[in-house]
């Protein structure tokens, strides 16, 4: 009888062990921490070729860009700013230390609106050997009547009374620095026609429809029960089988007197 009790006890322990091993408490999923953002701008400074015609002005990126300007040349660029934003421009014409000295020469940088009217400008002398830095004051891009969001232009000129033609075809490197701040001004939409119903805003919240007095409320979908995270219920038959086998084995040992 003692061996029967021991066998039954071992079977119970085995069943409890199966159930405890199968039960795993739900744990919150832990996501890997986001990788640190790379704050280093590894892009090379792009080359932009300014246009002689403002209608063909190429778009300048934010940050730095480079170009080459010839004497007596005027280059046009489209600035990455629209009405409501503020743009700051710095134009550096790099001199050649071993080059010829030029007199009566200026670098002219003008920020213009979409109609090419001056907004801010800077004019600095240039001697051909030392760098000339023209930085117009920060300018807010004005809105042009009849346009939703007006763009801005930049004209850069290298002017001198000494040069004739293209000054011998010798160009100077230009570094363009563009910074933009602020948010674009909202576009102005046309007023709705008389009698037309205005459409709701995209982010408007639509209130739920209330049933009329005396009308039955619309049926609601029953809640979906949560899926259990433990597998103890699935392994309960295994534990019961282990308990029964232990009991039968203990009884057989006791009957044979072992």
Q: Describe the global form.
A: elongated
Q: How many DSSP H or I helices? A: 2
Q: Give the DSSP E fraction (strand runs of 2 or more residues).
A: 25-35%
* Number of E strands: 9
- Structural class, from helix and strand content? alpha+beta
Characterize the biggest β-sheet: 5 strands, antiparallel
Query: Would you list the SSEs in sequence order as H and E?
Result: HEEEEEEEEEH
The separation of the N and C termini measures 10 Å
Low-pLDDT segments, ≥5 res: 35-42
Summed over residues and divided by their number, the pLDDT gives a mean of 74
Helical fraction: 10-25%
**Rg, Cα atoms, Å:** 40 Å
Walk me through what this model shows.
With 258 residues, the protein is an alpha+beta fold. Helix content is 16%, strand content 25%. Strands 1, 3, 6, 7 and 9 form a 5-stranded antiparallel beta sheet that branches. A 4-stranded antiparallel beta sheet has the order 2-8-4-5, with no helix packed on it. Helix 1 packs antiparallel against helix 2.
């Amino acid at each position: 009888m003692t061996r029967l009790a021991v066998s039954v006890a071992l079977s119970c322990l085995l069943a409890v062990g199966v159930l405890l091993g199968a039960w795993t408490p739900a744990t919150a999923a832990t996501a890997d921490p986001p990788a640190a953002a790379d704050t280093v701008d590894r892009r090379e400074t792009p080359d932009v070729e300014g246009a002689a015609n403002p209608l063909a002005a190429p778009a300048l990126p934010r940050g730095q860009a480079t170009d080459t300007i010839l004497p007596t040349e005027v280059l046009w660029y489209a600035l990455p700013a629209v009405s409501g934003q503020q743009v700051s421009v710095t134009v550096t014409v790099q001199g050649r230390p071993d080059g010829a000295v030029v007199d009566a020469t200026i670098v002219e940088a003008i920020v213009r609106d979409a109609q090419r009217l001056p907004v801010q400008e800077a004019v600095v002398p240039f001697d051909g050997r030392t760098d000339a830095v023209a930085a117009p004051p920060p300018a807010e891009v004005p809105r042009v009547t009849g346009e939703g969001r007006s763009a801005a232009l930049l004209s850069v000129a290298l002017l001198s009374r000494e040069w004739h033609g293209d000054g011998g075809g010798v160009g100077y490197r230009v570094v363009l620095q563009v910074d933009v701040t602020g948010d674009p001004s909202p576009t102005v939409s046309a007023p709705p026609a008389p009698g037309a119903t205005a459409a709701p805003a995209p982010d408007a919240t639509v209130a739920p429809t209330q049933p009329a007095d005396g009308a039955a409320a619309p049926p609601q979908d029953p809640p979906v029960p949560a899926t259990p995270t433990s597998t103890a219920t699935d392994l309960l038959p295994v534990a019961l089988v282990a308990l029964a086998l232990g009991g039968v084995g203990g009884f057989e040992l006791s009957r044979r007197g072992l």
